[in-house]
């Protein structure tokens, strides 16, 4: 879902920061577990234990279903339909937010970064969740899985985001995520991934996958990104941009005032002319 006009050039001054959703911005564990159990009951399949259900947060839905014993592609497709019907009704309300992450995304965007969501969740569910929690307007773009097409891997979702921008140097973009799929998906496009330690990764998963750093909380993530993109914290640049914005606003206001004055003068001229004509007519 494109939220704003795109085709912007990514640069060190205007970097692209991609956020995973599940396990990074939001905790959907309760809703995903309930949805998967509902789907498996509808299929008449045995229920996995809690550890397996927890591991389903992050990877694509069909991949999760197909990982279960005795699951065929046909059963998995039916299970996905049951899951999505359930999650659409109950999932967003059962999803909570991790503290500070949306605030960080908002701050990054205010400093000039482009912020996007790249999730393996169905895109419409991602939009629902962000909208419900007042975070949709923070992001320039939200990309995720789609119903009417081949299932997307995390690399596919990242490709969909990158396709909307002009990126010449991979160092000007970074992925933020909590699972190995975020790391490997980013790596397929030459991007680094910063892992977050508050999500659903198993112990050592992010380190083994090759995350360039791992943040313990939103403040630590902010510090990592500040070190990676110091231009975003260049107060002189921010002041100059604000000044340019103020000058542009002043110019617009002056132009508007000039147009209003011209309109008033024209109206006054027209009224005077009309009075002269009326007076002449009365005299005649």
From TrEMBL:
<feature type="region of interest" description="Disordered">
    <location>
        <begin position="263"/>
        <end position="284"/>
    </location>
</feature>
<feature type="compositionally biased region" description="Basic and acidic residues">
    <location>
        <begin position="263"/>
        <end position="274"/>
    </location>
</feature>
<protein>
    <submittedName>
        <fullName>HAD hydrolase-like protein</fullName>
    </submittedName>
</protein>
<dbReference type="InterPro" id="IPR023214">
    <property type="entry name" value="HAD_sf"/>
</dbReference>
<dbReference type="InterPro" id="IPR041492">
    <property type="entry name" value="HAD_2"/>
</dbReference>
<dbReference type="InterPro" id="IPR036412">
    <property type="entry name" value="HAD-like_sf"/>
</dbReference>
<feature type="compositionally biased region" description="Polar residues">
    <location>
        <begin position="275"/>
        <end position="284"/>
    </location>
</feature>
<dbReference type="InterPro" id="IPR023198">
    <property type="entry name" value="PGP-like_dom2"/>
</dbReference>
<dbReference type="Pfam" id="PF13419">
    <property type="entry name" value="HAD_2"/>
</dbReference>
<dbReference type="InterPro" id="IPR050155">
    <property type="entry name" value="HAD-like_hydrolase_sf"/>
</dbReference>
């Amino acid at each position: 879902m494109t939220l704003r006009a795109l085709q912007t050039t990514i640069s060190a001054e205007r970097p692209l920061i991609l956020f995973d959703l599940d396990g990074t911005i939001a905790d959907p564990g309760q809703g995903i577990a309930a949805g998967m159990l509902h789907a498996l009951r509808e299929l008449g399949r045995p229920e996995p234990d809690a550890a397996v259900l927890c591991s389903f947060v992050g990877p694509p839905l069909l991949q999760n279903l197909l990982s279960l014993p005795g699951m065929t592609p046909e059963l998995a497709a039916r299970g996905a339909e049951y899951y999505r019907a359930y999650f659409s009704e109950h999932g967003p309300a059962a999803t909570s937010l991790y503290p500070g992450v949306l605030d960080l995304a908002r701050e990054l965007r205010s400093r000039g970064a482009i912020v996007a969501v790249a999730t393996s969740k169905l895109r419409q569910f991602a939009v629902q969740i962000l909208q419900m929690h007042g975070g949709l307007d923070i992001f320039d773009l939200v990309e995720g899985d789609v119903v009417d097409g081949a299932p997307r891997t995390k690399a596919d979702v990242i490709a969909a985001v990158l396709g909307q921008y002009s990126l010449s140097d991979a160092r000007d973009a970074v992925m933020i995520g909590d699972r190995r799929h975020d790391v490997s998906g980013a790596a397929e496009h030459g991007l680094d991934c910063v892992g977050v330690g508050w999500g659903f990764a198993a112990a050592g998963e992010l380190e083994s996958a090759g995350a360039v750093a791992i943040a313990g909380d939103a403040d630590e993530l902010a510090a990592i990104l500040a070190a990676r993109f110091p231009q975003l914290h260049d107060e002189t640049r921010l002041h100059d941009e604000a000044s340019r914005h103020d000058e542009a606003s002043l110019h617009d206001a002056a132009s508007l005032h000039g147009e209003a004055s011209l309109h008033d003068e024209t109206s006054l001229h027209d009224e005077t002319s009309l009075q002269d004509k009326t007076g002449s007519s009365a005299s005649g």
